Each structure stands twice: as C-alpha cells, then as structure tokens.
Amino acid sequence: ASAAGFSPNGDGAFDDLSLGLVVKLADGIDSWKLALVDQDGVERRAFTGKGSSVPARQSWDGKSIDGTVTQGTYTAVFTVEYTKGDRAEAKSAPFILDTEGPKVVLSTSPRYFSPDNDGVDDELKISLAVADASDIDTWRFDIIEVAVSESAGAKRAERVFFTWSGRGKPAERLVWDGRSQKGELVEAATDYPYRLTIVDSLGNKNVAEGSVAVDVLVIRDGDRLKIKVPSIVFRPDFA
C-alpha cells in the first residue's frame, strides 16, 4: 500500500490509496484478483482481470461494493490463478481507512472559576480525552475574550485571550491561572468561550466548543477586600 492510512471524504487530502501489484511470472496467467478485506474478514471491494495484463498499480477510493465507506483496518489480498492450476497469493500490511475527526471528551472544573488568589478555585482544570484511529497531528486550545464594539454598530468582536497548542496527542490535563498571554486577569462575572481544534495525520478535523464561567472576584488590597467587576458601558440613545 502507498500509505499506512487514507481518508476518502472528499476534502482533497489522502482521499485515495494506491496498491502496487508485482507479478514475477506473467506467462500462463488465467485470472487475477485484488480483494480489500476489513478487520472482520469481510471482503468490501474487489478488482479482477483475465490474462497476463496485470496493472502495476491499482487505486482504491475507499468505497465498498455497495458504494458506502466503512471505517476500519484493511488488508489487500492479491491472488493470481494460472492456467496450469497453480495459485499465488500475497497480502499487504494492514492500513487504516479513517474519515472521521478525532473523538474528544472535554470537561472543565470548577463550575465557577475565581482566580482571585484566595486559595479557592484559583485554577481552571481542563480534562481532555482524545481517541482516533489515526495518529494526532496538531491541536490548539483557545480561550476567547468577547467584546462589543460600538464603533462597528454594536457587533461582537473576539480575540484570543490565552492559547495552548502542540503536535501529537495533547496532555490529558491543562491548568490555567486566569491570565492572558500578556498577563491580563480575566474579568469577573464574565463568560469566556473556548475552542479546541484537533487534526489527525490524515487531515480529519474536530472542533469542540464551550465556555468558562468566571465568578465574582474578591481582591485583597492591604487590609481591605475589593469586589472586582467589569466596566459597564451603556449604548448611547438606548434604554
């Protein structure tokens, strides 16, 4: 097989697989067959021919005989029948057919995050469980700050507040102290959306989204406690 896996989903990346067929004795061939067999031993697709005109390569678009695409691990079985009754068979190494993005289970705790340095719920813990038939290529976890821009007609504006990224499978746990890449602290009583984008080695992508709820923050200033609240801006000429 030309690769260890492919992803026939029409996205232009790894959409087909090529299988090399080598016959050292072409004289006297009666027929040949290339069968694509899944991990359960079910023949999903077959290519056949008569005589010695065996193609050097045969491509497969991942479709079964009925036109469907079934995920799993496959093996190509190449059989040559000779007119004198001899039979030769070769098998490829297993390869993966994977058309789906990585499966993600994501959770955050505590429910209300309060990074005010009082020793209670000061860190946001993000638990990640990622599973995929293929290897993970890249991932990125963005925490987003949303603002309303008056100059743009009260439209929502987003900016990445904090981000993690990497290659390969992400860690099972991320911890955040509530500060941006520039050291800014989150606003109290505000929701911060998050977005996890994860891509496997065959180009399949999955995006998981949610939000982090920030609690009211109580900041100690000497011997006083201050409640930190975000600035409230009222739109002009509106109730």
Q: What is the tally of beta strands?
A: 18
What is the string of SSEs from the N terminus onward? EEEEEEEEEEEEEEEEEE
Major beta sheet summary:
6 strands, mixed
Looking at the chains present, what oligomeric state does this protein adopt?
single chain
- Overall spatial form: elongated
Low-confidence stretches: none
What average pLDDT do the residues reach? 93
Helix content class: under 10%
List keywords for this structure.
mainly beta; elongated; 5-stranded mixed β-sheet; 239 residues
If you had to describe this structure to a student in words, what would you say it looks like?
It is a single chain. The protein is an all-beta fold and 239 residues long. Helix content is 0%, strand content 52%. The chain has no helices and 18 strands. Strands 1, 3, 4, 6, 7 and 8 form a six-stranded mixed sheet that branches. The radius of gyration is 28 Å and the shape is elongated. The mean pLDDT is 93.
Write a concise synopsis of the structure shown:
This protein is an all-beta fold and 239 residues long. It has strands spanning 5-6, 17-20, 29-38, 43-50, 57-60, 72-82, 87-91, 95-97, 103-109, 112-113, 124-131, 136-149, 155-167, 173-176, 191-200, 205-214, 217-221, 224-228.
Question: What's the structural blueprint in terms of helices and strands?
Answer:
Layout: E1 5-6, E2 17-20, E3 29-38, E4 43-50, E5 57-60, E6 72-82, E7 87-91, E8 95-97, E9 103-109, E10 112-113, E11 124-131, E12 136-149, E13 155-167, E14 173-176, E15 191-200, E16 205-214, E17 217-221, E18 224-228
Parallel strand pairs: 1-8, 10-16
Antiparallel strand pairs: 2-5, 3-4, 3-6, 6-7, 6-8, 9-11, 11-14, 12-13, 12-15, 15-16, 17-18
